[in-house]
Design a protein that fits this description.
Layout (H helix, E strand, L loop, with lengths): L1 E7 L3 E9 L2 E4 L4 E4 L8 E5 L4 E8 L2 E5 L7 E3 L3 E2 L2 E2 L3 E5 L8 E6 L6 E5 L2 E4 L6 E5 L3 E13 L5 E7 L20 E11 L5 E4 L5 E5 L3 H4 L6 E9 L8 E10 L1
Parallel strand pairs: 20-22
Antiparallel strand pairs: 1-17, 2-16, 3-6, 3-16, 4-5, 6-7, 7-15, 8-14, 9-10, 11-12, 13-14, 16-22, 18-19, 18-21, 19-20, 21-22
């Protein structure tokens, strides 16, 4: 066991919770969102790289997601009164015409949120049971989310840390670089590894170093070698070229 005194410039972290996520993230650009799980399914819109959606189901190489708010949804005004559905079943279509495909079915008594009116059709938000489809070739699972709770300490106090079984280089200062803007909210994606500075390092899939990560060993070590999406504040110190990220949230991407 090696006892080391370091100048603390950041916030101490503690994990708040682990939770399973049904999110998927888009890995391509301008990816087709379709009405049915087929290349012949009606094209509804496009998803962009990094977009997150809620996963619902899968079918033959297609990922079913909960329809996002930007997907068009229309009902005929004859079957709605005071935003309440009148018939036992009401088709929700992707356009203001009976020739458009059915996105979902509403039941008698359900309430709709009217956005606009076109001729005899009412545009509404997609119902919660609406499912649209994206090819699984362009999605990746976000398997869980780590939420981090911060406890604030002074930026200019000495902190004693007990660090076990880690080779650490301490011949540099942790002084903030006064020539660079500090504490900017940032988001980085990469694979986590240990560095020689008592910090963790994030590396891109093609091997390029992205940033260092500041955190407790027992918190971050279980995440080593995982592909992560981290968001938080980044800082620059005099003796390191790469920024140091103080994460607020971490998503583990499969």
């Amino acid at each position: 066991m090696k006892k080391i005194i370091l100048l603390s410039l950041f916030l101490l972290l503690s994990f708040k919770s682990y939770s399973t996520s049904n999110d998927v993230v888009i890995t391509g650009n301008r990816v087709s969102i379709r009405l049915s799980p087929s290349i012949k399914g009606e094209l509804l819109d496009r998803a962009m790289l990094g977009d997150h959606f809620s996963s619902v189901t899968e079918s033959n190489g297609w990922q079913g997601i909960s329809a996002p708010d930007f997907i068009s949804a229309w009902v005929h005004s004859d079957y709605v009164s005071n935003n309440i559905v009148l018939p036992k079943k009401l088709n929700v279509r992707i356009g203001p015409n009976k020739n458009y495909g059915v996105l979902a079915i509403l039941s008698e008594g359900q309430e709709v949120n009217q956005i606009e009116v076109f001729n005899e059709w009412i545009k509404i938000n997609p119902p919660s049971n609406s499912v649209v489809w994206i090819s699984k070739d362009f999605v990746s699972n976000v398997i869980n989310i780590v939420k981090i709770e911060s406890s604030e300490e002074s930026n200019e106090i000495l902190e004693e840390e007990l660090i076990e079984n880690t080779v650490i280089t301490t011949n540099f200062s942790f002084d903030l670089n006064v020539n660079k803007e500090q504490g900017l909210l940032s988001e980085f994606q990469g694979r986590l590894s240990m560095s020689k500075y008592g910090l963790y390092k994030l590396t891109s899939e093609n091997g390029e170093d992205i940033c260092f990560i500041r955190g407790r060993k027992y918190q971050l070590e279980p995440l080593i070698n995982n592909l992560l999406l981290l968001s938080g504040k980044k800082y620059f110190i005099d003796d390191l070229e790469l920024p140091i990220l103080q994460p607020n949230t971490i998503k583990i991407i499969n």
